[in-house]
# Entry
Amino acid sequence: MNRLIIIGASGHGKVVADIAIKKGYTDIVFLDDDASLKECAGYPIVGKTTDAKDMFGDKIVAIGNADIRCEFQNQLDNIISLIHPAAVISRRVHIGKGTVVMAGAIINSDTLIGDGCIINTGATVDHDCMIHNYVHVSVGAHVAGTCEIGNRTWVGAGSVISNNVNICNDCMIGAGAVVVSDLVKSGTYIGVPVKRVR
Ligand SMILES: CC(C)(COP(=O)(O)OP(=O)(O)OC[C@H]1O[C@@H](n2cnc3c(N)ncnc32)[C@H](O)[C@@H]1OP(=O)(O)O)[C@@H](O)C(=O)NCCC(=O)NCCS
# Structure
């Protein structure tokens, strides 16, 4: 099967489409609820997101919001994961369904990556980490060894999570932030080292 249906005609979706081409998909289409959009990165938008469940083909949800990504993914069959050929991933890594790993990302040994995650361009996740479902490790962010990151947490661009740190569910770690100790309360954290701002 070489049809891929990408749900969400976003900038993120464009990058997902680029990976899909490299992985051999020849028929790429998008679904999006913005009726004014006709194409995304040169690929046609053929319907609304609700059409996905009735369509035949592999599927991936390219929506940045973790709650929405989760909601769509849970309703759909044939969800695939995509790994850019220029990502470096240890053979002792498990990657869940619906997860995308972008170019230049590195994931080291004995790390688990859950379902629906985004390991974005140039991000690294080191050894023995547990990255739960729908986590986004943004472009250029670094997660050091033996960290645990809870469901739906968003690790901002260029941020650093020091080794042996646990971060709970539903945190937003701001761009450029540095986390050096456990975060046990959901919320938004910024700065070096991070402070909770809401
Ligand atoms: C942390 C974040 C979520 C806050 O967003 P927000 O609630 O819209 O905040 P605002 O932009 O209104 O900024 C509020 C204040 O926090 C400061 N601030 C915002 N983000 C900050 C950050 N990452 N680090 C330090 N300070 C930050 C702003 O300068 C502003 O300060 P001021 O009140 O003194 O002017 C957001 O700025 C951020 O970092 N998002 C991550 C984006 C990202 O990594 N994208 C990756 C895509 S792959």
In short: Helices lie at 11-22, 66-75. The first strand starts at residue 3 and ends at 7. The pocket of coenzyme A is lined by residues 120, 138-139, 156-157, 172, 174-177, 188, 190-191 (CB under 6 Å). The chain has a mean pLDDT of 98.
